[in-house]
Design the sequence.
């Protein structure tokens, strides 16, 4: 931008970048082309204001999308969380990034200062129809002002959902790094940001997990690096802890399964059973998380993506479920969760409602996605597909109805060798073969243009005129079959044609 030097190398001797310009760019998803770029807000300023002087904590970022007006998504960029904490919200208008608001907590004990996490979550915690940004111990309102702060400090994990269905609104489960924090772990009412239950641990509690894994206990279960598994009321239900990582809907019931690295486990009440081990690699040894977990295919169960350095693996469950629910991406809490999932220390997405009591009474959220122009990839070859049969066995006066569709680099399709009575008509990318003929023949349909040629041969065969159509049926129980004949089904269109194949055979077999 401006007079910036695109060839400059701003790294210092230790590899940190503490000077030079910083940008925020929005790209076209299909092509990767730059749409608009602005200067990153805020700049580094005083590097030591972020928690150290050598350049680690100045470059601690989080990012999310949030419906700050209740209708349109905004991008929210977050810088800093150990001490100074900032957020800048942008709208995308007329193909430009337009700053909506800027939040700067740079004074200890005020705003979000020091109360951010290695992750971020988004939800409408106050019920006004507009999203708040849950940073961890602090929450930022939809207008960029501080909604509330606890002063519990920085943490490495958090989860937001309707964890206790007996309570109104949303709850959150949080763990904290500072050994002197008032709580090492706690569950909070997010509307008030008040603690429901928790405990001071006096340790760096680096991992935390919350999910509905046990149907015997209503609501979520929660646990951390500290001892114990608890129900949503704070009662310890087990001393045996499962993995403290990701959750996933996999096996078809309404409870969560556990995802840790490439292993998917089922809680059995006092331990886990292995459901499946996936091929591929998790992100790394410490996170041990997937590339992404999400309801990609829209059936409310979730897919999971891994990699092996050369390709990606997308896994979907093959286990049937008796429950039917709209796609999870229609829930705004979940939808935003897919966007922030890979921000800093990955956390799993959660729904903004509870499904453990059943799905029959769950109302579909009022959400829509706007239309957008899809730019298809540039085709590399001609294609030709068809609807109908390439072997046309025709009764007397029976019509041919066969459609070919050309695509890719093909500019058209040509038909050669048509018998008398049949015609070919081009309609857009379709070539329709129709008509009646008395001939036995073979004709060819092939593409025109493109780097390659695709062709099909169609065989037309006339059935012996002594055979007749004796039944026009949709249900064999009502067909006028004779028990001294054998019948054969030739094909299925709008009806079934039946013909005599052996007039001398008296055995009937209508299976």
Sequence:
């Amino acid at each position: 931008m401006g007079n910036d030097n695109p060839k400059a190398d701003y790294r210092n001797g230790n590899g940190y970048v503490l000077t030079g310009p910083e940008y925020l760019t929005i790209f076209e998803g299909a092509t990767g082309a730059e749409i608009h770029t602005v200067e990153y807000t805020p700049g580094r300023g005083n590097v030591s204001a972020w928690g150290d002087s050598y350049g680690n904590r100045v470059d601690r970022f989080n990012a999310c999308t949030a419906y700050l007006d209740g209708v349109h998504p905004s991008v929210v960029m977050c810088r800093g969380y150990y001490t100074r904490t900032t957020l800048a919200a942008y709208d995308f208008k007329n193909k430009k990034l337009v700053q909506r608001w800027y939040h700067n907590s740079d004074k200890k004990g005020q705003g979000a200062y020091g109360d951010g996490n290695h992750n971020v979550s988004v939800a409408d915690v106050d019920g006004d129809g507009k999203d708040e940004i849950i940073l961890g111990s602090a929450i930022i309102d939809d207008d960029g002002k501080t909604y509330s702060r606890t002063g519990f400090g920085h943490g490495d994990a958090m989860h937001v959902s309707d964890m206790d269905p007996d309570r109104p609104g949303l709850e959150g489960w949080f763990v904290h790094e500072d050994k002197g924090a008032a709580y090492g772990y706690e569950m909070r009412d997010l509307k008030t940001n008040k603690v429901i239950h928790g405990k001071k641990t006096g340790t760096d509690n680096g991992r935390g997990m919350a999910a509905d894994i046990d149907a015997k206990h209503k609501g979520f279960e929660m646990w951390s690096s500290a001892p114990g598994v608890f129900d949503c009321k704070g009662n310890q239900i087990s001393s045996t802890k499962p993995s403290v990582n990701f959750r996933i809907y996999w096996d078809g019931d309404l409870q969560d399964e556990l995802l840790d690295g490439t292993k998917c486990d089922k809680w059995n009440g006092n331990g886990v059973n292995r459901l499946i081990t996936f091929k591929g690699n998790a992100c790394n040894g410490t996170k041990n998380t997937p590339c992404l977990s999400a309801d990609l295919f829209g059936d409310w169960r979730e897919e999971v993506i891994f990699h092996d350095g050369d390709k990606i693996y997308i896994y979907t469950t093959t286990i049937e479920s008796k429950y039917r629910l709209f796609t999870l991406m229609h829930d705004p809490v979940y939808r935003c969760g897919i966007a922030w999932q890979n921000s800093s220390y990955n956390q799993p997405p959660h729904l903004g409602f509870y499904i453990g009591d059943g799905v029959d009474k769950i109302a579909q959220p009022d959400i829509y996605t706007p239309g957008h122009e899809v730019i298809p990839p540039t085709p590399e070859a001609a294609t030709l597909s068809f609807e109908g049969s390439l072997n046309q066995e025709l009764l007397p006066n029976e019509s041919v109805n066969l459609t070919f569709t050309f695509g890719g680099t093909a500019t058209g399709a040509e038909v050669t060798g048509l018998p008398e009575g049949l015609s070919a008509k081009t309609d857009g990318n379709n070539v329709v073969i129709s008509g009646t003929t008395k001939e036995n023949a073979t004709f060819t349909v092939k593409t025109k243009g493109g780097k390659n040629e695709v062709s099909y041969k169609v065989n037309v065969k006339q059935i012996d005129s002594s055979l007749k159509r004796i039944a026009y049926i949709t249900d064999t129980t009502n067909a006028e079959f004779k028990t001294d004949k054998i019948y054969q089904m030739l094909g299925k269109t709008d009806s079934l044609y039946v013909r005599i194949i052996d007039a001398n055979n008296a055995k009937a077999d209508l299976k």
